[in-house]
Amino acid sequence: MLDHLLSRITPIVGRILALNAVVLLLQQTLVTSPAVTAWLRFDPAVAFTRPWTFLTYMAVHGGLFHLLANSLALAVFGPSVERRMGSTTFLLFYLYCGLGAAIFSLVLSAVLPIAPFVGASGAVLGVAMAFAMHNPDAELMIFPIPVPIKARVLIMIIAGIDVFGALVGGNSGIAHTAHLGGLAFGWLFFRAQRLGRATDAPRFPPMRPRVPVVAGRDEEVEELSYDAAPASRNPAPRQTPPPPDPAVLEAAELDRLLDKIGASGIDSLTASERAFLDGVSRRRRGS
């Protein structure tokens, strides 16, 4: 199982895992002074005097178990999200969720006692939220639960635990508010995208060809308009209408799919519709 997990690691996920491991190794060997950890951790009480800690706290962990838990979660959820987003966007999203976790904790420190904290949990849970948004019905096995859990249900369970922990956990040593901040900012990222598509997406009028309709083997359906003249008693023989131009039909289907993407996003396309777009793209590139 471990070999399979490692084989799925994507570039940015691998670099984050390596960075966190190296930082912990330095903490445990060469840079053992608690003052260094205090200089890098996020403390809401002194956050504005140490602005670098809004990001540096993500690379510092409280021990090997803390690092392993975050690394395992990132290795499970991260590769799928990175492949979907692309490496650059994924890295920015990871940092955005980590920054959001710190900001969320800073805001809540006005009403809740929040101790200084370290660790990538907020950023990792933001990535887990992205995974659940992309794959809500994906089933996951979580030790020691003996049955698979859907991704969206898992996220709701984690959020519930962290809400409870933030309210009554006290000094448990777990940064529940950072967890909630990572989840919240991850959700807001996708919510903002959906709102943007709904309000700003251009609407294109459909361009669908009119195709003649045949009522039966020996019958023709006469197309009438409101200003059409009465049919003569001896109408001229009708010519069989030419078959629809394949290029026109293709353009009409392409226009329909662009309409659909503008209204609901590219994720709304079916597999056959995606295949159609890929085929059109290849033909127009001359491949």
What key attributes describe this structure?
Rhomboid-like fold; 2 strands; two-stranded antiparallel ribbon; 11 helices; elongated; 287 residues; 2 domains
Element-by-element helix/strand order: HHHHHHHEEHHHH
Strand arrangement in the largest pleated sheet: 1-2
Percent helix: 55-70%
Round the Cα radius of gyration to an integer and report it.
28 Å
- On the 0 to 100 scale, the average pLDDT is 82
The parts where pLDDT drops under 50 for at least 5 residues are: 206-231
Please give the number of β-strands: 2
Structural class: mainly alpha
Question: Could you explain how this protein is built, in words?
Answer:
It contains 11 helices and 2 strands; from the N terminus they run αααααααββαααα. It has helices at 2-7, 11-28, 34-40, 53-56, 64-85, 87-108, 121-134, 151-168, 176-200, 246-264, 271-285; strands spanning 139-140, 149-150. Helix 2 (11-28) packs antiparallel against helix 5. Residues 206-231 have low confidence and may be disordered. The two termini are 40 Å apart. Helices cover 59% and strands 1% of the residues. The protein has 2 domains: 2-200, Up-down Bundle (Rhomboid-like fold); 246-285, no CATH class. The chain is mainly α and 287 residues long. The protein has a two-stranded antiparallel ribbon. The radius of gyration is 28 Å and the shape is elongated.
